[in-house]
Design brief:
Helix content: over 70%
CATH superfamily: Homeodomain-like
Shape: elongated
CATH topology: Arc Repressor Mutant, subunit A
CATH architecture: Orthogonal Bundle
Structural class: mainly alpha
Number of strands: 0
Oligomer: single chain
């Protein structure tokens, strides 16, 4: 991905983060996100096919971290003896 494309993607994510934090997933308007990011809707769709996929792009890194913590806890739990479990 080119530097310009990376900057555009970062701009979309930063703008969307503000809208999602303010209005939530259902309340945030894709039209307003695109407008505030200074893009056309067509340009937006080159990066994300839907508003939900944009939301996923923002939340997936955090979810992945939570899953890693969960997996680690399960591993440690399974190492315990039956009586300690």
């Amino acid at each position: 991905m080119s530097t310009k494309a990376e900057d555009t993607q970062k701009n979309i994510l930063d703008t969307a983060r503000k809208h999602f934090l303010k209005d939530g997933l259902t309340g945030a308007s894709l039209r307003n996100i695109v407008k505030d990011a200074g893009l056309t809707t067509g340009a937006f769709y080159k990066y994300y096919p839907t508003k939900e996929s944009l939301f996923d792009a923002l939340t997936d890194p955090y979810m992945e971290h939570i899953y890693q913590i969960y997996d680690q806890i399960i591993e440690e739990f399974e190492k315990l003896s039956a009586s300690d479990q």
